[in-house]
Write a structure and sequence with these properties.
A hairpin with an 8-residue loop joins strand 6 and strand 7. 23% of the residues lie in helices and 31% in strands. With 274 residues, the chain is an alpha+beta fold. The two termini are 18 Å apart. The radius of gyration is 25 Å and the shape is globular. About 15% of the residues have low confidence. It has one domain: Immunoglobulin-like (Sandwich), CATH 2.60.40. Strands 1, 5, 6, 7, 8, 11, 12 and 13 form an eight-stranded mixed sheet that branches. Helix 1 runs antiparallel to helix 2. The chain has two helices and 13 strands; from the N terminus they run αβββββββββββββα.
Length: 274
């Protein structure tokens, strides 16, 4: 083989190697983007009918019937949800063992499946005090409403909430009992929760010391929840793994991209042989 032929073959191999290298890099970057942009392991869940939990900040056996999703962006947040005929129950688990005395959880609720900032008209806040100290741990619950770009206190609180730290795993738990529209007379400031409808929510977690601005604030992306409703009013089947069209579109896009890369490499090789 003469020197010219050898140099030509080396250039072909170098070009193919470069294409494959940049293709792999592109797939890795895309995979990273998908992970970071998907805030929940399931960003759409069916909320099943379950038992009534005791709202005390302790995860009791009633929550075994709830549907659960985990934050994909903030890996330490688990959210469980279930309903009965009049209330939406939500449990937020923070999988951390070092706790600040002034942690808080805020549920941001939309009145529909829309999720622009102004759509989250309602907020349910559980603010802790002395949270790391079991002997004098306390919390405050506050209903808030979205007004001119910020959340301000509502004139009445229409939910029940509690916060506690597990004596076992040391995780913190925040429980919410939120009334449906049928038992809530504040239709102006609160989300109008109705069976069978879909609502968007977000979870905000941070530290808010008295007379100071909140710090270390993290907020999940939107989660869509559909309140289960069976014809006739009974308990229907729970859809454990609902079809996630966003993830499906990412997968199809990735497959198409890889196929295009393979075709490009084969075409380049074919032309090189001519």
């Amino acid at each position: 083989m003469n020197g010219l032929a050898l140099m030509t073959r080396l250039r072909k191999h170098t070009t193919i190697t470069g294409i494959l290298f940049f293709s792999i890099c592109a797939v890795l970057v895309l995979s990273h983007y998908i992970t970071m942009s998907s805030a929940w392991t399931q960003d759409e869940i069916i909320v099943p009918v379950g038992d009534i939990p005791i709202i005390d900040g302790i995860q009791d056996a009633a929550w075994n019937k709830a549907n659960v999703t985990k934050s994909g962006e903030i890996d330490i947040i688990n959210l469980k949800a279930m309903i009965n005929s009049s209330y939406l129950f939500i449990l937020v688990e923070i999988q951390a063992t070092n706790h600040d005395d002034d942690e808080y959880i805020k549920l941001l609720l939309s009145n529909s499946s829309d999720f622009e900032d102004e759509d989250f008209i309602d907020a349910k806040l559980i603010q802790t005090r002395n949270f790391s100290k079991a002997d004098n741990r306390s919390y405050i619950i506050t209903d808030q409403v979205y007004y001119e770009g910020e959340y301000i206190s509502d004139n009445q609180t229409n939910f029940v909430g509690a916060a506690n730290i597990s004596a076992g795993n040391k995780y913190s738990y925040y429980e919410f009992s939120i009334p449906f529209a049928s038992v809530n007379n504040d239709t102006l400031n609160d989300t109008s929760i109705v069976l069978g409808n879909t609502f968007a929510l977000k979870v905000e977690f941070g530290i808010h010391k008295e007379d100071q601005s909140p710090t270390s604030v993290e907020r999940t992306e939107e989660l869509l929840i559909t309140l289960e409703k069976k014809e006739g009013g009974g308990n229907g089947d729970i859809e454990e793994f609902p079809l996630n069209l966003k993830i499906l579109s990412y997968v199809m896009f990735s497959i198409t991209g890889v196929a295009f890369i393979v075709i490009a490499v084969i075409t380049f090789q074919s032309r090189s042989k001519i």
